[in-house]
């Protein structure tokens, strides 16, 4: 599931079913009589372990309902439609191969929301990329700063595979915290989002944290994506 397949505010979580069908975020099957009920342990990759938990996301977003992970992936996301101008896909949302200059050593991503389609208010798409070293992660931050800036202060149009369109206004991109965090505000039809990216040093190289946090009822999500990105960066810090 990704926002690029969401032409209307009420459908922001509609792709969750597709993720479940693909095996991402699917609920465990009910126990069957006569079948071994030994619990299955879910492997969490080192990159996925850097992502804030649903409970942490509930706190960061200020949601009055618990955030829940509705989908996850360990590869880049396919775009279900077209974006104009196409060069702004990287600024539009996280997780697309064309949105990154770096060749990552790994990727982990999650979608979280505080309700079902049409009822959720808060939506988070968090992605972390592993890189060969800190320099590669920092280079990605600089490359994204240039790319997002080219798309700032303009309106982009996404057309879904079904032909529905939605427009998003991208504000100018800004660098915060001594140029270590890239932030850009996005406004759609009844939705306001914040995009943030940060680069950090990890135990075995570097990481890039890329986050989109949205208020699906038009509230102001300022600071939320930035805080999530910084949390990922903090989680990656090598321990002595």
UniProtKB/TrEMBL annotation:
Residues 45-233 form the PknH-like extracellular domain. Its EC number is 2.7.1.-, 2.7.11.1. It is an enzyme of class 2 (transferase). InterPro entries: PknH-like_Extracell (IPR026954), PknH-like_Extracell_sf (IPR038232). Keywords: Lipoprotein, Signal, Transferase. One of its GO terms (molecular function) is protein serine/threonine kinase activity. The keyword Signal applies. It comes from the Bacteria. Residues 1-31 form the signal peptide. The keyword Cytoplasm does not apply. This is Conserved lipoprotein LppH. It comes from Mycolicibacterium chitae.
């Amino acid at each position: 599931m990704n926002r690029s397949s969401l032409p209307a505010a009420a459908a922001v979580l509609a792709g969750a079913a597709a993720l479940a069908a693909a095996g991402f975020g699917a609920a465990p099957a009910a126990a069957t009589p006569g079948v071994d009920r030994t619990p299955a342990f879910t492997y969490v990759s080192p990159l996925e372990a850097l992502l804030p938990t649903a409970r942490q996301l509930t706190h960061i977003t200020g949601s009055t309902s618990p955030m829940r992970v509705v989908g996850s992936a360990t590869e880049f996301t396919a775009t279900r439609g077209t974006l104009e101008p196409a060069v702004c896909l990287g600024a539009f949302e996280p997780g697309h191969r064309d949105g990154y200059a770096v060749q990552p050593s790994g990727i982990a991503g999650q979608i979280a929301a505080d309700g079902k389609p049409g009822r959720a208010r808060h939506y988070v798409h968090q992605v972390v990329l592993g890189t060969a070293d800190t320099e590669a992660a920092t280079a990605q931050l600089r490359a994204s700063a240039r790319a997002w800036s080219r798309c700032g202060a303009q309106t982009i149009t996404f057309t879904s595979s079904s032909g529905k369109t939605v427009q998003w206004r991208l504000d100018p991109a800004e660098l915060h915290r001594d140029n270590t965090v890239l932030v850009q505000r996005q406004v759609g039809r009844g939705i306001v989002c914040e995009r943030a990216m940060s680069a950090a040093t990890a135990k075995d190289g570097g990481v890039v944290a890329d986050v989109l946090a949205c208020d699906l009822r038009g509230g102001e999500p300022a600071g939320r994506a930035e805080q999530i990105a910084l949390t990922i960066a903090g989680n990656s810090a090598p321990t002595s």
